[in-house]
Fold this protein.
Amino acid sequence: MLFEKNDFINDKFTIDELLSRSWRFRSTTQFTKFFNFITRFHHYSRYNTMLVYIQNPAVTFFGGVSFWKKKFNRTMQMINSEYESVINDPVFKFSEQTDEAKQDYIKFPEIISQIISFDVVIEICGNWIWLSGNTRKYKKQLKNTGFFYAHLKRMWYWRPNDYKSANKKPMSINMIRRKYGSDVVGRQLNFELGE
């Protein structure tokens, strides 16, 4: 009988402590960020959304196997195969990159997804992302995302941490395009990424 009474007291104390901690947690900025994250993905279960948040709180969209098949006509095997081909590309030499460089390359799609809805031109030249057009109204968001402003070019750019320009004389954007190539990110992805 004494054992049962102690269990009840311990259980009551544990529940009271849990409730007290949860009330304190609700007033933190960490909880607000978590709650805002979950509300963006209302079409997924709270548990699955919580698992995604734990893995990467910067995620802007995600989907299951059926989502990728229906929206993009892609299977996970196809996506993984393409990922492996990039990783094992002898020209790219991903396995020989530093850990910091690998993280930067992994961040590339994340950076694009954060700015794809902006009314700007997104251009990839080599390992750098260049933005032009109506960028002024996005100044704060661009700085927070890690972009820098190139005054002479009147463009914003993002680059991997270990990629710094070695040129003593600045290159024009046209010279950069000729040297490294240029791909403009299509705006048709905007509606799909915003889900």
Residues 97-193 form one domain. Residues 187-195 have pLDDT under 50 and may be disordered. The beta strands are 120-125, 128-133, 148-150, 155-158, 183-184.
